[in-house]
Amino acid sequence: MCKDAIVYDNKPKAVTLEAGHSYYICQCGRSKDEGVFCDGSHADTKCPTTCLPKKVDIEKTKQYHICMCKSSKNMPFCDGTHSFYTEDDIGKKVK
Ligand code: FES
Ligand code: FES
């Protein structure tokens, strides 16, 4: 987790990822692509070297729960850490 990341949402987002594809998932919380896929917005962060996207190579096509609070210890997947955040934390820095 980057200390300068932003909480995009306080719950995960179910996204279907396809086998044989690689994806770059947003870890900074600033992507305008629904906060899921990196769109380069991390370049505006204060720590552009750590707020980089997380590359995942998918072996099985299925729905994955993408971490939208950007605080999971198993990025880019939800590990339940989001329960720590309320609606008021959305759009603010991770804690
Ligand atoms: Fe968030 Fe690239 S836009 S990591
Ligand atoms: Fe981030 Fe669940 S949405 S840990």
Summarize the structure.
The protein contains no helices and four strands. By secondary structure, it is mainly beta.
Question: Care to describe what's here?
Answer:
- With 95 residues, this protein is mainly beta.
- It has a domain at 13-77.
- Helices cover 0% and strands 19% of the residues.
- It has no helices and four strands.
- A two-stranded antiparallel sheet has the order 1-4.
- The chain starts with 12 loop residues before the first strand and ends in a 29-residue tail after the last strand.
What proportion of the residues is helical, as a percent range?
under 10%
Q: How many helices?
A: 0
- Overall 3D shape: globular
Average residue-wise pLDDT: 93
What integer value in Å does the Rg equal? 12 Å
Order of helices and strands: EEEE
Q: Give the helix/strand class.
A: mainly beta
Strand content: 15-25%
Main sheet attributes: strand count, strand direction, barrel closure: 2 strands, antiparallel
Strand order of the biggest β-sheet: 1-4
Ligands present:
FE2/S2 (inorganic) cluster
Which segments are poorly predicted (pLDDT under 50) over 5 or more consecutive residues? none
What gap, in angstroms, lies between the N and C termini?
Answer: 10 Å
Number of strands: 4
Secondary structure topology:
Elements: E1 13-17, E2 22-25, E3 54-57, E4 62-66
Antiparallel strand pairs: 1-4, 2-3
One FE2/S2 (inorganic) cluster (FES) is lined by residues 26-28, 30-31, 38-42, 51-53.
Name a few traits of the molecule:
binds FE2/S2 (inorganic) cluster; 95 residues; two-stranded antiparallel sheet; two-stranded antiparallel ribbon; globular
